[in-house]
């Protein structure tokens, strides 16, 4: 029954909220308000229903109470609110908080109701550990201020928050929440009303002593406490600076941890703590000078902290516009770096020093002559020009670029010109030489105004910056977005094998070199003494684009194809580059150079990186490239001037040698098939012509040799018997027999549509007992 009533009220409130005037056309506002108040008094009504009714009363007070509230109405509403507050402790914390928020809004709107109606609930709310109830209490404090909360209440509330912010049983997020409540505490008589973090007047140094940060706090708690205590001691009128000294000592404790190779988290925490301390006490010369010296000492021992130092300087300049501390720190760091003896410099440390010097070069108040002399001294008296590489050279050029925009360029003109000239003639990297020469040309030929115009950052046009391949960009000018490689949603490219014609010139006699029978095998084997002879298989493929592609991918540039092996039977396949690929042009033919370790079929995984017409780089995955067993076949690897007779002699000698080898490697097999109405000569020409050694048309006898890198052979002796064609097989690698058998079955299956007579001895060794031949 209660569920039905709740559903009925939910429908009524929904209809009323949708259109109050239409809803009240069937009743009066007085009747609806009376029903609403009666339901609020009902003990059987659920908390959900009561909160729903209060929300309607709060949202439409003028509609439900168009006439001024009478004394009787005020008393009735007060009794209802008192009843709800008395029973609120029976609700769950979430519903209590929701009910309190609604009642606070109602009391705030109705002038006849006094905020003192909540007085009986304050003690219970001050002692709660529920975050939702504390939120509702803070809302009550912000709305009613001293109308409800006395100075004693406010003091007790503050102490309660301070105690909860360090309670050992609470989690770190909960403690941080209480710290945030202290920083945004709604005072009865607030000094500042801008909504920013401000310290309540009642939070004194004595009260906040228990919240002093320690190195045992986690990073978030430590930084939050440091910020709170910095506010406390900044506003406190103390002549001895004991509190600030403690905070500085805490900062130096973090400094020692970082100096002793602390973790990355502790390093970040130290620099964030240093920035927090600077934000509040940058005017204190005593502490700031000491902090500058400690930071310089830390950098001298750990120069890899250069990015952290630069970031600290950048943030300090943004937030402390009036402070000269960032300039003082940069000058001190510059002095430390330029006075370093050359034996203490390494390529790695020099690269970090360049980052700091590049940041120093951006400050017009810092003299730059010492920086240029230091750089020139390092480049002349060390191996940086030969061993530095592109990245180090680019870091030096970044310093030079900043100096080209420096206000005191005229004072360092000669030193900068000497440095650029030296890099132009002595730096090993061609790209660095070209940039140094370009900067030298700008320096010596342009006025200050034109030089600033050339090197200044271009304006933003539209949603993205206009760029060109020849634009001059600073190190931080969005290089990361330009160099990002995006992945396509679907495959954009595919590789299609080229179906090459295997019809070669007919066998015949010409001016060929004839060899003695004994020399043939010797000359043939000596060829393999040359490194890499006959070790490669060229697989030709068309590079094409997929169908139904977006117009973005119709023109591709600088395509780089990369191939990954799926087994260990091949050497790594080199990358293949294609200058461009257009949708409406003939697809290019690429050549994959395969170097088999074992001549078995395989599969290559392919992927590509390319650039589209808009200058963006893309990555796409291609379908796998299958390398079939016939793709590995090569003709007999002999010179073109070998005579036909010499080739036949070589075939016979390989056949005899293979049959006489150790049975652990060599093997023979016999494959038979029915020719039916087809011509054996046509079958040979279609499938074996490139590998044909000899043919005897009178006896229907054919000799075929497949060479498989790195140095394996498959020899076929094909004869046409009375009832079937017999293929005698000899190979010097018995593991190839299953692949040979499958290959022969594939090429003969076209002519064996109805019957197949197969005599197959796939693993019959030379010295084995003769196998029983089965006719299928």
UniProtKB/TrEMBL annotation:
Offer one Pfam family short name for this entry: AP5B1_barrel
Q: Which GO terms describe its biological process?
A: endosomal transport; protein transport
Q: Where is the AP-5 complex subunit beta-1 N-terminal domain positioned along the sequence?
A: 34-71
Tell me where in this chain the AP-5 complex subunit beta-1 beta-barrel domain is found: 555-625
Which parts of the sequence belong to the AP5B1 C-terminal domain? 649-747
| Keyword list, A-Z | Protein transport, Transport
* Gene Ontology CC: AP-type membrane coat adaptor complex; lysosomal membrane
Describe the location of the AP5B1 middle domain by residue ranges.
Answer: 73-451
Protein transport in keyword set? yes
Q: Does the keyword Transport apply?
A: yes
* Protein name, as recorded: AP-5 complex subunit beta-1
Tell me the organism.
Albula goreensis
């Amino acid at each position: 029954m209660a569920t039905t009533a709740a559903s009925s009220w939910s429908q009524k409130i929904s209809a009323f909220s949708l259109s109050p005037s239409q809803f009240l056309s069937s009743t009066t506002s007085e009747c609806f308000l009376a029903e609403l108040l009666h339901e609020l008094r009902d003990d059987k009504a659920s908390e959900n229903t009561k909160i729903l009714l209060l929300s309607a009363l709060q949202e439409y007070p003028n509609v439900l109470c168009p006439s001024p509230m009478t004394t009787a109405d005020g008393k009735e509403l007060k009794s209802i609110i008192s009843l709800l507050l008395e029973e609120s402790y029976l609700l769950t914390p979430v519903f209590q908080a929701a009910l309190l928020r609604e009642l606070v809004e109602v009391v705030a709107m109705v002038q006849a109701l006094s905020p003192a109606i909540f007085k009986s609930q304050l003690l219970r709310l001050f002692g709660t550990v529920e975050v939702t109830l504390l939120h509702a209490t803070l809302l009550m404090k912000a709305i009613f201020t001293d109308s409800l909360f006395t100075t004693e209440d406010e003091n007790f509330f503050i102490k309660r928050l301070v105690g909860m912010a360090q309670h050992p049983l609470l989690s770190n997020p909960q403690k941080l929440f209480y710290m945030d409540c202290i920083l945004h505490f709604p005072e009865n008589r607030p000094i500042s009303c801008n909504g920013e973090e401000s310290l309540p007047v009642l939070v004194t140094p004595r009260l906040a002593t228990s919240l002093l940060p320690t190195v045992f706090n986690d990073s978030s708690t430590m930084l939050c406490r440091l910020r709170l205590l910095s506010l406390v001691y900044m506003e406190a009128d103390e002549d001895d600076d004991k509190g600030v000294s403690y905070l500085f000592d805490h900062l130096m404790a973090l400094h020692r941890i970082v100096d002793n190779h602390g973790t990355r988290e502790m390093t970040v925490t130290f620099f964030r703590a240093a920035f927090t301390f600077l934000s509040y006490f940058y005017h204190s010369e005593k502490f700031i000078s000491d902090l500058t010296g400690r930071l310089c000492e830390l950098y001298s021992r750990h120069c890899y902290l250069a990015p952290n130092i630069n970031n600290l300087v950048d943030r300090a300049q943004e937030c402390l516009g009036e402070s000269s501390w960032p300039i003082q720190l940069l000058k001190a760091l510059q002095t430390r770096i330029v006075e370093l003896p050359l034996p203490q410099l390494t390529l790695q440390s020099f690269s970090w020093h360049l980052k700091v010097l590049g940041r120093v070069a951006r400050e017009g108040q810092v003299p730059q002559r010492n920086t240029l002399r230091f750089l020139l001294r390092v480049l002349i008296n060390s191996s940086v020009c030969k061993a530095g590489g592109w990245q180090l050279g680019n870091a030096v050029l970044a310093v030079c670029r900043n100096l080209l925009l420096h206000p005191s360029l005229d004072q360092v003109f000669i030193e900068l010109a000497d440095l650029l000239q030296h890099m132009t003639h002595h730096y090993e990297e061609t790209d660095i030489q070209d940039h140094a020469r370009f900067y030298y040309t700008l320096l010596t030929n342009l006025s200050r105004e034109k030089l600033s115009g050339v090197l200044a950052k271009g304006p933003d046009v539209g949603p993205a910056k206009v760029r060109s391949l020849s634009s001059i960009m600073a190190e931080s000018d969005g290089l990361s977005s330009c160099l990002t490689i995006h992945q396509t949603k679907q495959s954009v490219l595919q590789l299609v094998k080229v179906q090459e014609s295997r019809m070669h010139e007919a066998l015949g006699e010409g001016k060929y070199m004839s060899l003695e029978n004994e020399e043939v095998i010797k000359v043939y084997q000596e060829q393999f003494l040359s490194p890499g002879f006959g070790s490669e298989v060229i697989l030709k493929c068309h590079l094409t684009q997929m169908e139904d592609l977006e117009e973005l991918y119709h023109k591709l540039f600088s395509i780089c194809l990369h191939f990954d092996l799926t087994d260990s039977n091949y050497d790594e396949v080199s990358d293949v580059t294609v200058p461009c690929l257009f949708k409406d042009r003939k697809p290019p033919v690429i050549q994959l150079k395969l170097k088999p370790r074992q001549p078995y079929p395989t599969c290559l995984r392919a992927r590509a990186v390319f650039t589209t017409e808009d200058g963006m780089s893309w990555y796409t995955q291609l379908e796998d490239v299958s390398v079939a067993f016939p793709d590995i076949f090569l003709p007999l690897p002999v010179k073109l001037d070998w005579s036909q007779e010499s080739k036949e002699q070589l075939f016979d000698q390989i056949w005899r040698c293979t049959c006489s080898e150790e049975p652990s490697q060599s093997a023979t097999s016999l494959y038979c098939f029915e020719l039916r109405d087809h011509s054996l000569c046509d079958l040979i020409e279609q499938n074996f012509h490139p590998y044909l050694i000899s043919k005897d048309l009178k006896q229907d006898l054919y000799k075929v040799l497949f060479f498989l890198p790195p140095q394996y052979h498959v020899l076929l002796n094909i004869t046409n018997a009375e009832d079937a064609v017999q293929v005698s097989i000899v190979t010097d690698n018995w593991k190839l027999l299953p692949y040979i058998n499958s290959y022969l079955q594939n090429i003969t299956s076209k002519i064996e549509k109805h019957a197949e007579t197969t005599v197959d001895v796939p693993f019959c060794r030379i010295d084995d007992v003769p196998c029983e031949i089965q006719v299928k």
